[in-house]
Structures are given as C-alpha cells and as structure tokens.
Design a protein that fits this description.
- The structure is a single chain.
- With about 230 residues, this protein is α/β, with parallel strands linked by helices.
- It contains 8 helices and 7 strands.
- It has a 5-stranded mixed beta sheet. It has a two-stranded parallel sheet with strand order 1-2.
- Strand 3 (about 70), helix 3 and strand 4 (about 115-120) form a beta-alpha-beta unit.
- Helix 1 (about 15-35) packs antiparallel against helix 4 and helix 2 (about 50-65) crosses helix 3 (about 80-95).
- The radius of gyration is 18 Å and the shape is globular.
C-alpha cells in the first residue's frame, strides 16, 4: 500500500508538520487494516509533478516491489496531483527493465511482466464532467466493512474535507459510489470499477492477473471491450 504524497492539507488546529505526521500514522493504520505493507511517501500533497527527479524515485519503488498488479489513479481526475501520480506510475512501471535508466536510490532493473489498472475518477466523471465507464467491476460486497474501516482511519482528511468541500459524510459517499458501480455492473451490490492499461511494454495482450486472481468476483464488461475497437 503506497500513498505517493504526504497529506499536508489540514484544518487550522494542525500545523503543517503535525498534519504530515498524522497522515502518515493514519496511512499506516489503514495498511494494517488491509494487511498491507506501507511504503513511505515521496512528496508533499499537491507537490507531485511529472519530472525526471520524481520519476527516478518512483521507479526505484517499483523495482523494489516487483509487482504483478499495479492499481493506480485514473488518467482523468478532479485533482492534478492524482493525474500526475498516474503518469508517474505508468512511466516507472514501463522503465522497470531499462538498464540505462538509473533510479534513486539505485535498484537493479527487473523485466517481469505486469498489468496496470486505473481506478475511476472521484465522482465517476472526468474533469470536464463526462461520465467515465468501467471496463472491469470487482465485487467488494463481502469486504465493504473492511474498506470502510480502512477509510475511517483518515480522520484528519475527514476534518479537512468537512471544512473545505462540505463532504461531511465521506464514508457514506464511498458507499454510495460503490453502490452506484454495483448497479452499473448489473450483478454486484457494491463494486469498484477498473480500466486495464494497454499491455504494450508490460506483458502479453491477454495478461489480466486481476481477473485471474479474483475469478467470479471480477467481471469484464463485454460492451466496454467491444467499444475499444
């Protein structure tokens, strides 16, 4: 489990250093709920930019972890740093086996196959208000309570959202979007939506480890696939 940025936004009751400390502790708590390994953040909130320096650091983490599945942000989203995170993860994964691309810290190249999946944007629409469709739906009904518990660890985020964006029911909002995706799937009560990245540079065209791992809990929409041309 990896948040690329420290959370430095907060309410007036926390200074910058304190909110960063709190967000790190909250992320670690969420990782424990998920049974995941947490990796330290590499940048401050809103300070994630697609540049060579950041790419060398993100690529080092990819080479260290050697993931088969990468779950990352939507290429279109309501915040620029979300989109920049997406671009960085894609390029870092693509460069995983490039011997002449040096990372910081230095990590040996690795050329294993992987698949990248993009989440849907917040609100299920892009920044120009267009609905974004999901290519694959994952049934999260059996683990919705665990997802809620993970999200509930981010209490400082809730404080900031309450003040800045009026999202006073952020847990209920997560559930509402999950229910909406479940309805769109036509088969699950609560779901997450994912879009598989192009295989070029990552693995075989038919490599879909998310579906292989989840079986019937992951459904690929044939209409979405047909619409790819």
């Amino acid at each position: 489990m990896w948040n690329l940025a420290n959370g430095c936004c907060g309410t007036a009751c926390h200074d910058r250093a304190e909110i960063i400390r709190l967000r790190a502790a909250e992320a670690a708590a969420a990782a424990r709920v998920a049974g995941a390994t947490m990796h330290p953040a590499l940048a401050d909130d809103l300070a994630i930019f697609y540049d060579a320096g950041m790419l060398t650091r993100v690529a080092a983490v990819i080479r260290e972890i050697r993931p088969t599945i990468v779950l990352t942000h939507s290429p279109q989203d309501y915040m620029e740093d979300h989109q920049n995170t997406c671009r960085l993860l894609v390029s870092a994964a693509f460069s995983r086996g490039m011997k002449n691309f040096a990372t910081l810290p230095s990590v040996a190249p690795w050329d294993g196959r992987m698949a990248l999946y993009h989440a849907l944007p917040h609100g299920l629409r892009d920044g120009l208000r267009k609905v974004v469709r999901s290519g694959q739906y994952v049934d999260i009904t059996p683990v919705l309570a665990q997802k809620r518990e993970m999200l509930a660890q981010h209490t400082s985020q809730k404080e900031w959202l309450d003040v800045s964006q009026g999202m006073d029911a952020y847990l209920k909002e997560m559930e509402a979007m999950s229910r909406a995706l479940g309805t769109l799937s036509g088969r699950f009560e609560f779901a997450e939506g994912w879009r598989r990245h192009s295989h070029l540079g990552f693995g075989p065209a038919d490599f879909d480890p998310l579906s292989s791992a989840l079986g019937a809990a992951c459904w690929t929409d044939p209409e979405y696939e047909a619409g790819l041309g």
